[in-house]
Amino acid sequence: MGTGIVDRLKRDYDILDTWVPHEIHPDTPPEGRPLDELFDRFDIDQVTMTCNRRGEPYGIRFAEMTLLSNSRLALEAAEFARDAGRYPAFHGRMFRACFTEARNIGDMDVILDVGARAGLDVPALTEALADRRYGPRVEDGSRRARETGVTAIPTFIIEGQPPVTGAVNEPILREKIEAAMERH
Fold first, then answer.
1. More confident residue, 57 or 109
2. Rounded alpha-carbon distances, angstroms, from residue 109 to 31, 32, 115
3. What per-residue confidence (pLDDT) applies to 32?
4. Alpha helices in the chain (DSSP H)
5. Residue 149 pLDDT > 90, yes or no?
6. Is the peptide bond before 26 cis (omega within 30 degrees of 0)?
7. CB 154 within 8 A of CB 167
8. DSSP-assigned letter for residue 155
9. Do strands 155-156 and 67-68 pair parallel, antiparallel, or not at all (unpaired)?
10. How many of the other CB atoms lie within 10 Å of CB of 163?
């Protein structure tokens, strides 16, 4: 949802968006965890229904969520994509894989498939993930996020404004951007 909102806002504002890698649930096992172990199924379905209603204006559709994936390797792969100049393509495809297709983005085959579709060098990506060369960057992103007060994803940081947490309505972000622009 955050991506859809930011993309819409870019039509009207000169926005430089930087997505910082941050693991919200670092304790998730590598294979993931069934969501119904963490939350009531009714609550999961209500969140999905709300996300679908709110995502509709942005062309975003959410699948029935059953698994909380371990996002660590996907975040590391995104940093590889950033260095390869393919971050936007990878980022969008990874979000679709997770939220629209309900794929386990902690699964290496899923990550490599998304990487291939985003135009990444899959053997080089495989090597980077195997040697965990982007692990420190993800750890640093999570550290910076915690220091900034990030408690949920998405969190929008707009210069001169307090962090905006969650996929808030677009008018709220427009208001914050306008306020930041008035200060400069």
1. 109
2. 12, 14, 10
3. 96
4. 2-9, 41-55, 72-83, 87-95, 108-117, 122-130, 135-148, 170-183
5. no
6. no
7. yes
8. E
9. unpaired
10. 15
* Cα–Cα distance, 174 to 79 (Å, whole number): 28
Strand 33-34 relative to strand 67-68, pairing: antiparallel
Question: pLDDT at position 152, please?
Answer: 85
Nearest to 28 by CA among 79, 82, 96, 98: 98
The C-alpha angle 99, 109, 100, rounded to 5 degrees, equals 15
> CA 120 to CA 127: how far, in whole Å?
12
Residue count (the chain): 184
pLDDT in tens, 39-79: 999 999 999 999 999 989 988 999 999 999 999 999 999 99
**What's the CA gap between 78 and 144, in Å, rounded?**
17
Three-point CA angle 77, 31, 133, nearest 5°: 30
pTM: 0.90
Encode 5-24: b = buried (16+ Cβ within 10 Å), e = exposed.
bbeebeeeeeeeeebbbbbe
Distance CA 16, CA 85 (A): 16
User: Whose CA is closest to 178, among 163, 162, 158?
Assistant: 158
